[in-house]
Amino acid sequence: MYSKITDSFFDIFDRETGLYMGHSHFTLTEGSEKKLLDFLNYNKVPDSLVLLNVSLSDTSSNYIPPELFQKHSRTSVMLIDVVDTYSQRLIPIEIEMSYDVLVRGNLSDTPYFFESVELRNIKILDVDYRFIQ
Asked: What are the angstrom distances between the C-alpha of 91 and each of 125, 128, 129?
C-alpha cells in the first residue's frame, strides 16, 4: 500500500507521431494524488487528473504548445516517488499512459509554463515498479 506521492514528472510524446515533445515537472492536486494512489493501491484507473504549475523543459523541436481549452492527445511516462505505508520507504514508479490534455490556465502566456492542466480519457499502458535497494 502507498500513502503519499512525493515527486512527479512526465516525459511527453505526441500520441499521433510518437515524437518526443519534452519533460515536465508538476504538482498534483490533492484529489489527483488520491486518484493516483487509488490506482496504485486498488487498480482504479483515474477518470481525470489535474496538474498544477506544469513547467516544461528539454523541449524538442517537435514541441507545439497546447492552446487553452483545446484537446491534444499525448502519451507520457509519468515518473513518481511514492511512500510505502508500512516501511515508509520511497518507491519510484513509472506509469506509461495515453490521455487527452486540456490546458485550463496559462496566465503567464508562456509556452513552457501552465498554471492548470487537466488530463482526461486516461488509459494506462504499463506500470513499472522500481524498488530502491
From this structure: 20, 11, 8
State the cell numbers at 49.
Answer: 487528473
Q: What cell numbers appear for 56 in the block? A: 516544461
Distance CA 76, CA 97 (A): 6
Is residue 75 a contact partner of residue 123, using CB atoms and an 8 Å limit?
Answer: no
Side-chain half-sphere of 4: how many Cα atoms within 13 Å?
9
Summarize pLDDT for 4-47 with one digit per residue, the tens.
999 899 999 988 888 899 999 999 999 999 999 999 999 999 99
Backbone angles phi, psi at 42, to 5 degrees: -130, 5
Q: What's the Rg (C-alpha) of the chain?
A: 15
56-114 per-position pLDDT tens digit: 999 998 888 888 889 989 999 999 999 999 999 999 999 999 999 999 888 788 899 99
**Secondary structure letter of residue 34 according to DSSP:** H
Which DSSP category does 67 fall into?
Answer: P
